[in-house]
Amino acid sequence: MDKTKWPARSVLPVAVPGIKYSILAILVTGMFFYFGWMAMAWVAAGLGIFVTWFFRDPDRQVPPGDENLVSPADGKVIIVDRLASSEYLDEPCQKVSIFMNVFNVHVNRMPFDGVVEKVVYTPGKFVNASFDKASIHNERNAFIIRMADSKRFVMVQIAGLVARRIVNAATAGQRVVRGERYGMIQFGSRLDLYLPMECRVQVKKGDRTLGGVTIIGQMPRTKDTLGSEDEIIKT
Length: 235
Fold this sequence. Notes:
Blueprint: H1 16-34, H2 38-54, E1 68-70, E2 75-83, E3 93-100, E4 107-109, E5 114-122, H3 134-137, E6 140-146, E7 152-158, E8 166-168, E9 175-176, E10 181-185, E11 189-196, E12 200-201, E13 208-209, E14 215-218, H4 229-234
Antiparallel strand pairs: 1-14, 2-3, 2-13, 3-11, 4-10, 5-6, 5-9, 6-7, 7-11, 8-10, 12-14
């Protein structure tokens, strides 16, 4: 897993983890042109343009409404379900899964305000992320987040068949804000959300989402009782 530091935005409209790939592509392309290997040079140039475009990091306008839980990623909703329990929550919850193909923006965003109680990284396989078994078999990185009313929701980055490098910049004890960037999954994959039963889910299977923009559901809001980061870390 890549722990690249994640500022609000790099100097370029490219996600920080992708800058090294863009620079490498430029160097390789330049080398091919220098030696006169024109066919390889143009192929490398095309791949370099695609890689830079893949790591694009557009600004997003988070919709107003404190109760709104926004999508953590661009993609397509492939699962909306209710579960008796999950790998991360012992109580009944709702699951929403978003599949990202290689043409989607891959910057991941926080769906809702809260404090990260725990980050759980699980090594695993790399089966197609659109398959249901990817949730339990693939490499994944889960964030258990406590909201102001002490309810929890879970967000899971899942690596896929091509995507084999999860980037995460959020840590246990960190306060997070709805819509802010926190990581990405390089070259495709999937995000799973496990939401409290009280959340009024607004999306259905087949819907398209924009990270930080599309409203996944509404979360009941109560008085902020999150406490300090030090208090969270000790729990």
